[in-house]
Backbone:
């Protein structure tokens, strides 16, 4: 028996996604739930990174995960194994999630008692970057086998992300990947971005990502109090 | 000095892309130019595969290459090094090419004296599968580091492709990739698809892909004669 549900989400009816994303952010602020949007190409290691990150955070934060895919439930099944609250979203062929689709997911997940919800967006380095999901922060993964030239070809994703995880560093000897050149290209697009090299396979760097998340959630909660 | 041009293509005005794709196919048939559409995730190895494939085909076919990217000209620069005719297309942020965008590229490339034009589509496992480019055949690459579960998550791309190259097999020892499970998932979606394991890095399997292309071009030219 599965410990998660699969939800078919509907295409949005809102014309102004940016406005709707701001509304969702305000709704989540009221509930005290921090939303993190995780994006990457297919196969860059989002789900494996999440399983390790959940383990690193589970004593500090109550976490819910939304797995968005065009089809299948393999990712939700993997996350369910960690014991975290999880839901599988099917996008009906859509290549990204917008704010209203994210809201449908959150309503089905339920936020009661949660501190942090992580949306694993559809694997796609192009379209998800164009749609604000209502998240507080955007995280992205670039994996070593994809190559260090990706910031040149897909600049928007690197521009709108707050943190870049460079994954599969355990396989760096196998591939020509120039970390310094990649970092320089990314920083040129987005000087404020934090870059964290990780291996979701070995766990290297995951602690640093977990610390980054905790820091963001803490700062955001403090903003809450100041405004309240 | 570069030996290629960079063209900014415009968004299409045609409402019915399928009809327009059929029209483009007919136009190209009249010119005797076979169009192959090559798709994959970012970083799966499209450009490296093309450089090796051009080398394997250059005595048999006159080849033109269209490199489609949101930004940069790194791929056209790489292909120009092979001596093949090449043009860089910028999609203006678009995540895929449709038939009219492809036609704009072909007009700028010029087909005089060419037997085969290969379109390297935008790196994206979702959207390009939804738009017929006017190609005679669709080729796709899945790379080993992406994982064997991708046919489950991105079924349309595997369904509409005529040939699947499984690339980076030289790195197979580094990653958990079950070839038989992957092939079974793909064949369930698309029993007629041809699956060719390759390593664009070492050149393994490229001859088989080159033979596949030659066979397709030959069959298509024969169809031409029979109808003429």
Residues:
């Amino acid at each position: 028996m599965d410990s998660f549900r699969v939800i078919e989400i509907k295409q949005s009816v809102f014309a102004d996604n940016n406005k709707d994303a701001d509304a969702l952010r305000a709704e989540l602020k009221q509930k005290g739930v921090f939303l993190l949007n995780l994006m990457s190409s297919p196969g860059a290691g989002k789900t494996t990174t999440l399983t390790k990150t959940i383990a690193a955070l589970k004593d500090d934060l109550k976490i819910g995960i939304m797995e968005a895919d065009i089809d299948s439930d393999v990712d939700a099944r993997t996350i369910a194994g960690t014991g975290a609250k999880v839901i599988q979203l099917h996008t009906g062929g859509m290549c990204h999630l917008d704010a209203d689709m994210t809201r449908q997911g959150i309503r089905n997940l339920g936020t009661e008692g949660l501190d942090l919800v992580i949306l694993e967006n559809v694997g796609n380095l192009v379209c998800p970057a164009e749609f604000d999901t209502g998240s507080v922060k955007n995280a992205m993964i670039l994996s070593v086998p994809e190559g260090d030239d990706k910031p040149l070809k897909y600049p928007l994703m690197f521009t709108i992300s707050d943190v870049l995880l460079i994954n599969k560093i355990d396989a760096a000897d196998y591939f020509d990947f120039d970390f310094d050149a990649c970092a320089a290209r990314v920083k040129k697009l987005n000087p404020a971005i934090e870059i964290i090299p990780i291996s979701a396979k070995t766990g290297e760097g995951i602690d640093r990502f977990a610390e980054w998340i905790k820091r963001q959630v803490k700062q955001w909660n403090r903003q809450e109090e100041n405004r309240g």
Notes: The first strand of chain B starts at residue 5 and ends at 8. The radius of gyration of chain B is 17 Å. Chain B touches chain A at residues 41-43, 69-72, 74-75, 93, 95, 122-127, 130, 143, 145-147, 149-150, 152-156, 168, 171, 174-175 (CB under 8 Å). The mean pLDDT of chain B is 94.
